[in-house]
Amino acid sequence: MSLICLSSPKGGVGKTTLTANLAFAFQRLGLPVTVIDFDVQNALRLHFGLPLGDARGYVALAEQHRDWKRLVVPTASGIRLLPYGVADDAQRLAFEARLGEDPLFLTEALQTLLAIPHMVVLADTPPGPSPALNALNRIADLRVAVLLADAASAALVPQIEQGLFFSAQQARSHLPVGYVLNQVDRRRRLNLDTTEFLQARLGDSLLGLVHRDEALAEALASQLPIFAFDPTSAAAYDIDRIAQRLAQQIESLKRPPYGQRQLR
Ligand SMILES: Nc1ncnc2c1ncn2[C@@H]1O[C@H](COP(=O)(O)OP(=O)(O)O)[C@@H](O)[C@H]1O
Ligand SMILES: [Mg+2]
């Protein structure tokens, strides 16, 4: 029963791709997994074989169903999916207001799911600050920031470290942020330099690197986990290692049962 939140100041850095494939990696470790999409783009579901026209989602129904377990969409993989779904502006704004105003909203919504023994819940977020990220930061067990091995990402690290990205919650929280550096390509000079700089700068808080690997995009196009599409790919190896590292961190958390936790 752990909640892991993936986020990034930037879009297009691989949050959704990593959320989905980390979910498959945790499942390979024998853990039950739930993934939740907090991004209106509603793209996470595509990694789990939902057809484009499938409008199902929890956001439009979150008011009526306080327990989101009842809104879970089962997937062929066995991973439980909460797709963002199709929501109109009014539904989206009401959902965001609720996330922002009611500190118990998310806790209650996830309580039953997180009570399942060993459950790992992975939350995919929209780029940058958002009501979802604020709410997740209050109750997440682990926070993962995804960066690219480029100068623009490197320039954002001080901002993240100062708490400007994770906002007030980070200042109050003792929770460290773990970083994943995505799209590493050592054949490109600037990419290599940035990777080495960030490795030195981030030290132990760098959870791992994911190499730039077309197999990830091809796996999505084939609607397969990277571990089924190309188990010997660099990306499969990288993502598996990061999942193992996160699993170790979950083990060492030894936090009180979810329902008995105090909100940060
Ligand atoms: N390690 C990688 N190697 C190659 N392509 C990647 C890698 N990670 C992500 N991508 C591609 O980058 C694009 C953006 O990824 P996505 O997961 O949608 O990012 P985000 O959720 O942060 O917006 C997608 O086309 C995805 O296939
Ligand atoms: Mg995304």
Please report the distance between the alpha carbons of the first and last residues: 18 Å
Q: What does the largest sheet look like?
A: 8 strands, mixed
Highest CATH level, the class? Alpha Beta
Strand content: 15-25%
User: What Rg, in angstroms, do the CA atoms define?
Assistant: 17 Å
State the CATH architecture: 3-Layer(aba) Sandwich
Describe what this molecule looks like in 3D:
The chain is an alpha/beta fold and 264 residues long. It has one domain (2-258): Rossmann fold (3-Layer(aba) Sandwich). It is built from ten helices and eight strands. The protein has an eight-stranded mixed β-sheet, sandwiched between helices. A hairpin with a 5-residue loop joins strand 3 and strand 4 (80-82). Helix 2 packs parallel to helix 4 (131-139). The chain is globular, with a radius of gyration of 17 Å. The mean pLDDT is 91. Adenosine-5'-diphosphate binds at residues 8, 11-17, 182-183, 210, 212-214, 216-217, 220, 235.
Present the secondary structure layout:
Elements (H helix, E strand, L loop, with lengths): L1 E6 L7 H14 L4 E5 L35 E2 L5 E3 L6 H13 L3 H10 L5 E5 L6 H9 L2 E7 L2 H11 L5 H6 L4 E8 L4 H14 L3 E6 L2 H8 L4 H4 L4 H20 L11
Helix pairs in contact: 1-10, 2-4
The protein binds adenosine-5'-diphosphate and magnesium ion.
The site of magnesium ion has 5 residues, from helix 1.
Structure characteristics:
binds adenosine-5'-diphosphate; 264 residues; binds magnesium ion; alpha/beta; globular; 41% helix
